[in-house]
Amino acid sequence: MKFKSWKDLPEGAIIKNVPTSIYFKTGDWKSKVPKFDSNKCTNCLLCWLYCPDSVIKVSDGKILNFDLDFCKGCGICSRVCPQGAIEMEDIK
Q1: In angstroms, rounded to a whole number, what is the distance separating the alpha carbons of residues 24 and 20?
Q2: Residue 89 phi/psi, 5° resolution?
Q3: What stretches in the chain show pLDDT beneath 70?
Q4: What span, in angstroms and rounded, lies between the C-alpha atoms of 75 and 7?
Q5: Which pLDDT does position 28 carry in this prediction?
Q6: What is the pLDDT of residue 2?
Q7: Architecture of the 30-90 domain
Q8: End-to-end alpha carbon distance in the chain
Q9: pLDDT digits (tens, 9 = 90+) for 53-74
Q10: pLDDT for 63
Q11: What's the pLDDT score for residue 19?
């Protein structure tokens, strides 16, 4: 009997070509949005670390912006910011 390696086995439990949240914008129902003050920010990135939806975009260790298409307005970023650089404000 010839044994197969894992590479020879058929794929199982893999769903291919299914739309994900990248294509399904989930931030439409929020009532608050983060307001970011770059002058107060020290780029500790705690907000980025704790954001459950990965909406805080960072490059070279610095916050660039917030992707509001996916932000649900939970305010976790605001609560973990030690500098008070993020405040949640009502959508106007």
Answers
A1: 6
A2: -130, 150
A3: 1, 4, 6, 9-22
A4: 44
A5: 83
A6: 73
A7: 2-Layer Sandwich (3.30)
A8: 70
A9: 899 999 999 999 999 999 999 9
A10: 96
A11: 62
- Unique residue bearing structure tokens 């058929």: 10
Q: Sign of dihedral through CA atoms 90, 31, 74, 51?
A: negative
- pTM score, whole prediction: 0.73
| Sign of CA pseudo-dihedral 23, 26, 28, 34 | negative
Write the DSSP assignment of the chain as a string of letters: -PPPPGGGSPP-S---S---TTTS---TT-SEEEEE-TTT-----HHHHH-TT--EEEETTEEEEE-TTT-----HHHHH-TT--EEEEE--
Q: Please state the domain extents for the chain.
A: 30-90
Asked whether the beta carbons of 66 and 74 are under 8 A apart, the reply is no
